[in-house]
Design a protein that fits this description.
It is a single chain. The chain is an alpha/beta fold. The protein has helices at residues 6-16, 23-35, 38-54, 89-97, 125-133, 148-161, 186-194, and strands at 56-57, 64-65, 82-86, 104-107, 139-142, 167-170. Strands 4-3-5-6 form a 4-stranded parallel beta sheet.
Length: 199
């Protein structure tokens, strides 16, 4: 027996397809939207449609943009010879929050993950190699996550870049600020020791 109208069920199913949204949250979101004035729901729908139609990949760095080049690639004050490679556009936001990096980015749109059938051809490695091959880049910083897939992706790309005789570095990682040594696992401690520096 169908308890709710078919349109409401369909809306709930669409919300449930979003990452991190379970069936109860999807239902709550659907009910919330139906309780709002039609003008608000239309604005919501228009925002989704407009974003889908106008946002595309920057031809230079593969980040999301609605312009010819993203604002970072279009900024002449940034150091275009230092390239930070990240897995996803949201990683650019995380790096920019620190307000320390003044280079530019390259977004891979994923990481190599054989278990999920994602290989080098499924992410933007070719575009990275073409960009670096132009000769403008002197350092590539690998800023993929320090998990198995992120490490494998960083190692794969660093091997491809080695013949180009440019500096390839990896973000340092180890013990987070504000944490305590007793709670750090062995791998984190090992990485922290390897990445130690003078003070």
């Amino acid at each position: 027996m169908q308890v709710f109208p078919a349109a409401l069920e369909r809306l709930t199913e669409q919300f449930a397809r979003l990452p991190g949204i379970g069936s109860k949250t999807a239902q709550r979101l659907a009910f919330y939207l139906l309780s709002r004035p039609e003008s608000e729901t239309q604005e919501f729908a228009d925002a989704i449609t407009q974003a889908k139609q106008s946002v595309r990949l920057c031809p230079e760095c593969r980040n999301l943009t609605d312009r010819a080049l993203c604002p970072i690639c279009d900024d002449d004050s940034r150091d275009h010879s230092i390239l930070c490679v990240v897995a996803e556009p949201k990683d650019v936001i995380a790096m920019e929050r620190a307000r320390e990096f003044r280079g530019v980015y390259h977004v891979l749109h994923g990481v190599i993950s054989p278990l999920n059938h994602i290989g080098p051809d499924d992410i933007c490695v070719r575009e990275l190699l073409a960009r670096v091959g132009r000769g403008d880049v002197r350092e590539v910083i690998m800023a993929t996550n320090p998990d198995t897939e992120g490490e494998a992706t960083a190692m794969y790309i660093s091997r491809l870049l080695r013949p180009l005789e440019l500096r390839v570095t990896r973000l340092a990682y180890g013990i987070p600020v504000g944490s305590q040594l007793e709670y750090a696992d062995e791998v984190t401690l090992l990485r922290a020791l390897e990445g130690r520096r003078e003070i």
